[in-house]
Amino acid sequence: MVMEMEEGVKDNSAVSTPKSRHTNQSRSLLPIRLLQILLLLLVLTLGISVVGIHMIKFLKFQHLDPVAPTTLISMYDHGTVALDSFIRPPLNVWHTMNDSELLWRASMVPRRNGYPFKRVPKLAFMFLTKGSLPFAPLWEMFFKGNEGLYSIYVHSLPNYKSSFSKSSVFYRRYIPSQAVAWGEMSMAEAERRLLANALLDISNEWFVLVSESCVPLRGFGFIYNYISGSRYSFMGCADEEGRDGRGRYNIEMEPEITLSQWRKGSQWFEINRKLALEIVQDTTYYPKFKEFCKQPCYNDEHYFPTMLAVKHRILLANRTLTWTDWSRGGAHPATFGKADVTETFLKKLPGAKSCLYNDQQSQVCYLFARKFSPSALEPLLKLAPKILGF
User: Fold this and answer.
1) Which helix (H) or strand (E) holds 4?
2) Which UniProt key words apply to this protein (predicted)?
3) Which of 11, 218, 247, 261 is deepest in the core (most CB within 10 A)?
């Protein structure tokens, strides 16, 4: 019986073994499933975190100023940043800059030699006027056929409205201006304003200041070659004795300007780009002249000649290209009308008793002349093709 009972026990053990194995297998699979669930939760958590970060960034961008992304898209998608945008001259010389902004902008200059594009140097004609240009038809004849070699800038009284047609070379060439008083610093300021506007065109290499009573004495080609071929700029810088020279000097200008540096010259000049930049960027001599050069000291006769003679004397020809007649005396030169303009009169104007061109004696000393009254226009138009060469 004992043996039978033992065998019975053994049999029962044999029958229960598969069930025990199944339980053990279930216990071993439980940690794996738990690990899978934990991994799944980790992946879901990371996914939700990434989505949340992107949502936060998106919501933040919604509160930014919309101008920034628009500007970036405009710059890169539409190619606005190109060399052309820096070198192309403005079609219209009008702008909204004040004098401080204009002079600052005009004083910018490349520091690298040479140009990465084909540059045709131009003559910038700067007309300092009260308003109208009575000799505009003569100047139109002068400029005709020389497009691309010149540019025009006109400074008039602020309230003057020009009426030139689109076909005129003077159309939209009036710059933003200020009131000008004869003999005051405002005259030199107007000249600096003209230079600054002309400097905005990087192709302008030479700068000629004329008035509404000035006329050209030669054809455009001759004048272009004469100026471009000169080693000097044409501005008087004489050390003149007497009341109208050194007598106008004010000792309060020291130490920036001494009596030995004081110079005098004609208001009407022609200078190159290097000297034009010197004038518009000047902050040393301008305050001294503005404060201490009062009538009978005239800034337009002393400011530029003195400043340029101090710094760049060897670059100046010490003479003007604009002829005037001071033989009658007085504060203003002689004015010529219709009866004065004859063939003989015009033939005599370009010459002088003595002048140098590139350190050699020359028979041509003047390229422009003044003062002419509006009545002189008719004979000038008639004689220009024969005598003046245009």
Assistant:
1) helix 2-61
2) Glycoprotein, Glycosyltransferase, Membrane, Transferase, Transmembrane, Transmembrane helix
3) 218
- 183-202 pLDDT, tens digit each: 899 999 999 999 999 999 99
What is the domain range of residue 379?
86-107+119-388
CATH number of residue 147's parent domain: 3.90.550
103: Cβ–Cβ under 8 A, 6 or more apart, which residues?
192, 196, 280, 281
Report whether 299 contacts 188 (CB < 8 A): yes
Is 291 a member of any domain?
Answer: yes
DSSP 287-329: HHHHHH--TTS-HHHHHHHHHHHHHHGGGB-SS-SEE---TT-
**Nearest Cα to 80, choosing from 69, 90, 72?**
72
Taking the CA atoms of the chain, what radius of gyration do you get in angstroms? Answer: 41
Q: What are the tokens at 338?
A: 């219709």
| DSSP three-state, residue 6 | helix
3 state SS of 40: helix
68 lies in some domain: no
pTM above 0.85, yes or no: no
What's the residue count for the chain? 390
The tally of domains found in the chain comes to 1
Confidence of residue 9 (pLDDT cuts 50, 70, 90): very low
